[in-house]
What we know:
Elements: E1 3-10, H1 26-30, H2 38-54, E2 59-62, H3 70-75, H4 82-92, H5 94-99, E3 112-115, E4 125-129, H6 136-139, H7 142-152, E5 159-161, E6 179-182, E7 191-196, H8 217-226, E8 234-239, H9 241-244, E9 255-258, E10 261-265, E11 269-270, H10 272-283, E12 289-293, H11 300-306, E13 312-315, E14 321-326, H12 327-331, H13 333-342, E15 349-355, H14 358-361, E16 371-377, H15 378-382, H16 392-405, H17 418-434
Parallel strand pairs: 1-2, 4-5, 7-8, 10-12, 14-15
Antiparallel strand pairs: 1-16, 3-4, 6-7, 8-11, 9-10, 13-14
Amino acid sequence: MKQFEVNFDGLVGPTHNYAGLSFGNVASLNNANANSSPKQAAKQGLAKMKALSDMGMMQGVLAPQERPDIAALRRLGFSGSDATVLENAAKQSREIFLACCSASSMWTANAATVSPSADTSDGKVHFTPANLTNKYHRSLEPEVTGRILKATFADEKYFAHHQHLPDNEHFGDEGAANHTRLCSEYGRAGVEVFVYGRHAFNPSMPAPKKYPARQTLEACQAVARLHGLSDENVVYMQQNPDVIDQGVFHNDVIAVGNQNVLFYHQQAFHNTDAGLAEIRSKFGEEELHFVEVPTSEVSVNDAVKSYLFNTQIITLPSGDMTIIAPTECQDNPAVKTYLDKLVTLSTPIKSVNYFDVKQSMRNGGGPACLRLRVAMTEQELAAVNGATLINDAQFERLNAWVDKHYRDVLSEDDLRDPNLLIESRTALDELTQLLELGSVYPFQRV
């Protein structure tokens, strides 16, 4: 039986902008208030999806959220016509207004946690949308994310969907950005590694002091229970509080795994040796590669600036692994030197491919942020909504859709333009038809 790991990338939404909303995310804060290019951002993302498809990978796409989020603004007391709601929110509460315009759902590594059927007690692929409680603009996403996931993975014979965890920071859950899976083959039982930043119910345990720890241990444990995972196949590791305070807001900014490779920075984890020993014990006797990047070769600062670890490691049809990296890695001397050396070492990683995703990078998200990984069997893949999978024809249709509906340049003042709301809803209504999603957006369900 064939097995696949399919990357479902988030399609950048029409309101892609730089509002600097993500405290703890250095790139997001550094580029606050700059003009953005939604069209360029969406096309950069589509180009990466098409390139991976051309490499022989199975590649999917997840739809963006409806923004500006008029329903959220009305819930907060802004009333009148849609145009009046936008104008009053922008005048009276700029921060709330900008949060409700965010296109952050493009980073689908935060969309959900996914456990493949080989790991779960009922033999189904399980999805739990992340609640993203730490940031208001992201906490608006889970309900619609759940609808999009259900429309993409609809067959109940193969797929199980859970409600997101309670909207409380005790169960702060950031999805796959703090979760990775190690396995010998995608279709065989693996070890699911959940990385947390703090203990919610035991504040005396280590925690960062400057920036928030967004993921709790209790959230990780709850998702593992919901997915029916065995204790023998789960490892919980704490992220190093010191690196969170250096701008490592998610684990996928400091570590990434694929099959039998865990690629991580020397300072990534708290109690590293104990965690790695548990992974090795639960992984079994098959070959396992721990690839540690020393601080002496790549500093945490260089890792964050280049997003060395917010890269994708994928297994090509040949069996070799390659790294999908942003061009910022190529431009950073220390990181480029390390990657040039890495491909000569005795690991499965044999090459690096660099991609321009600058529109995403400037808002604090690299290639790994842009994708949700779903390991599936051949039968499960056949049950996926085929319109959400990238091929030559669908790539051309989506590119044409972006050209038709997206603006070249967007400033903060443009976000209050009622015409942008109309443009966005028109675009998303057409997209749900292209992707055969049905009515997933609030404006379609009135």
